[in-house]
Amino acid sequence: MTDDLAAVGRFLYEAGTLKQTRRTGWWMAGVRDPESVAEHSWRTALIATIIAKLEGADPARAAYLAVWHDTQEAGPGT
Asked: How many structural domains compose the chain?
């Protein structure tokens, strides 16, 4: 169980780096000060929640999926 908790701790640390990680696609498009991955995920979760509610889907599930959709950008090499 200690190994599991260590892995969780490492993941949470890496996820925290997303607030400093800029979205590189914007740089390629010429945007000089792009939003962070965390800022993008926050806005995506809000949009997903509202669209889900309007469409009769589960807003909590939509927000959950939106929050997790960019977590693969965390980790070594980011």
From this structure: 1
Residue 56, domain extent: 2-73
- Count of other CB atoms within 10 angstroms of residue 46: 12
pLDDT in tens, 15-72: 899 999 888 888 889 988 999 999 999 999 999 999 999 999 999 999 999 999 888 8
The whole-angstrom separation of Cα 67 and Cα 42 is 7
- Would 78 be classed as within a structural domain? no
The dihedrals phi and psi of 5, each to the nearest 5 degrees, come to -65, -35
CA torsion angle 29 35 39 40 (round to 10): 0
Q: Which of 5-9, 30-34, 66-70, 74-78 shows the lowest mean pLDDT across its residues?
A: 74-78
